[in-house]
């Protein structure tokens, strides 16, 4: 386990040293610690498989938890603020959702409750060290896979900061135009904010608006696209042709991406090229779920482990037929 140490000599140097040591601690806490948290890479990979399996056993479209957990991975990570080096993928979204007064997170209660149910059971069983931050990120990737997307290799080792309330002021909203969305992703720390904006919003292809409209940028509750249980690039068609899909609930922000001067070209590429979109989504999702977490151990943000990837795909998992530790978990797969 990696221990975050502050050198004593720094602490004795008054207020400046205190600030420095705090910064050191924060940086240390934000470092990816696969072997630090999980002991060995081998065990970390076992934990990865445990989360992916738990996703197949517990997430579903029928109760909304599958798309809700894809969304939660975004809301945990994209609270990173580059200019202040705060927030990011640290599990604090659970805290923020529970507080109930963060309008940006409205509608995330479904996954909140799922995560609080799933993680303690995995901890009691296969992986006592599992962090909520890792679980949230990998559940998001598994949710995409369960909706038919290609497997997304992921890294583990995000430390939790479960008492934090990350800064969600300025969190991207449904009224943001394409330039404002790009600005948001830049401050959130994405290396190519335009690509992030155009690529990542396609998760709305499997989304449902669950919370009543509060402004003119949401058309009401309901599925955002006509095939909202399949995660492919159909999002781009729906967003680019609103009159053809008058009953769908895609957001104003989605429609503005289709027409934005900096975004429309890439939007059209992804609309017409499924493979280009899938490769981009994979890479951007990996990067997003590492926001605020400094890679270490020779791993870069786009590297990942695929242990458990695709292993449970297409299976209506029966808890009695599962190997070892997961017997007894309820079979909620629809
Ligand atoms: C411009 C950026 C974005 C905006 C303005 C935005 C906004 C929203 C809003 C308002 C909802 C409906 C919430 C409700 O009423 O229940 C929603 C749902 C959703 N969002 Fe986003 N979002 C954005 C980007 C993303 C990203 C980057 C992801 C994931 C990678 C994502 C995944 C989802 C999913 C899957 C849902 C459906 C959740 C469910 O069915 O419960 N969104 N989003």
Helix and strand sequence: HHHHHHHHHHEEHHHH
DSSP strand (E) fraction?
under 5%
Major sheet: arrangement of strands: 1-2
End-to-end span in angstroms? 39 Å
Account of the protein in words:
- Helices cover 46% and strands 1% of the residues.
- The chain has 334 residues and is mainly alpha-helical.
- It has two domains: 150 residues, Peroxidase, domain 1, CATH 1.10.520; 107 residues, Orthogonal Bundle (Peroxidase, domain 2), CATH 1.10.420.
- The protein has a two-stranded antiparallel sheet with strand order 1-2.
- The radius of gyration is 20 Å and the shape is globular.
- 46% of the residues are buried.
- The N terminus and C terminus are likely disordered.
- Protoporphyrin IX containing FE (HEM) binds next to helix 5 and strand 1.
What descriptive keywords fit this protein?
single chain; mainly alpha; Peroxidase, domain 1; two-stranded antiparallel ribbon; 14 helices; 2 strands; 46% helix; binds protoporphyrin IX containing FE
Fold topology:
Layout: H1 8-11, H2 14-29, H3 34-38, H4 41-58, H5 65-77, H6 92-99, H7 109-125, H8 132-146, H9 178-187, H10 193-200, E1 208-209, E2 222-223, H11 234-240, H12 252-259, H13 264-272, H14 274-288
Antiparallel strand pairs: 1-2
Helix pairs in contact: 4-7, 4-8, 5-7, 5-8, 6-7, 9-10, 10-14, 11-13, 13-14
This protein binds protoporphyrin IX containing FE.
């Amino acid at each position: 386990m990696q221990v975050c140490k502050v050198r004593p000599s720094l602490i004795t140097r008054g207020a400046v040293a205190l600030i420095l040591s705090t910064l050191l601690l924060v940086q240390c806490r934000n470092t990816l610690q696969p072997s630090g948290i999980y002991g060995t890479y081998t065990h970390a990979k076992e934990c990865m498989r445990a989360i992916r399996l738990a996703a197949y056993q517990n997430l579903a479209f029928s109760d909304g938890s599958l798309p809700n957990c894809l969304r939660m991975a975004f809301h945990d990570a994209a609270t990173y603020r580059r200019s202040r080096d705060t927030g990011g993928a640290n599990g604090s979204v659970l805290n923020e959702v529970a507080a109930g007064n963060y309008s940006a997170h409205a509608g995330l209660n479904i996954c909140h409750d799922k995560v609080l149910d799933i993680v303690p059971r995995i901890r009691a069983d296969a992986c006592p060290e599992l962090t909520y931050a890792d679980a949230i990120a990998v559940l998001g990737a598994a949710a995409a896979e369960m909706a038919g997307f290609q497997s997304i290799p992921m890294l583990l080792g995000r430390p939790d900061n479960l008492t934090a309330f990350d800064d969600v002021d300025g969190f991207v909203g449904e009224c943001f135009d394409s330039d404002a969305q790009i600005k948001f992703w830049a401050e959130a720390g994405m290396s190519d904010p335009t690509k992030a904006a155009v690529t990542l919003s396609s998760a709305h292809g499997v989304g449902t608006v669950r919370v009543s409209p509060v402004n003119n940028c949401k058309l009401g509750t309901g599925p955002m696209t006509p095939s909202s249980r399949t995660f492919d690039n159909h999002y781009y068609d729906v967003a680019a042709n609103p009159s053809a899909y008058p009953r769908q609930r895609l957001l104003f922000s989605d429609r503005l991406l289709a027409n934005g001067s900096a975004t429309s070209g890439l939007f059209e590429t992804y609309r017409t090229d499924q493979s280009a979109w899938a490769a981009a989504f994979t890479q951007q999702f990996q990067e997003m779920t590492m926001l605020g977490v400094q890679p270490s151990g020779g791993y870069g943000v786009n590297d990942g482990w695929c242990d458990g990837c695709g292993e449970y795909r297409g299976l209506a998992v029966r808890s009695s037929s599962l190997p070892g530790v997961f017997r007894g978990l309820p079979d909620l797969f629809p």
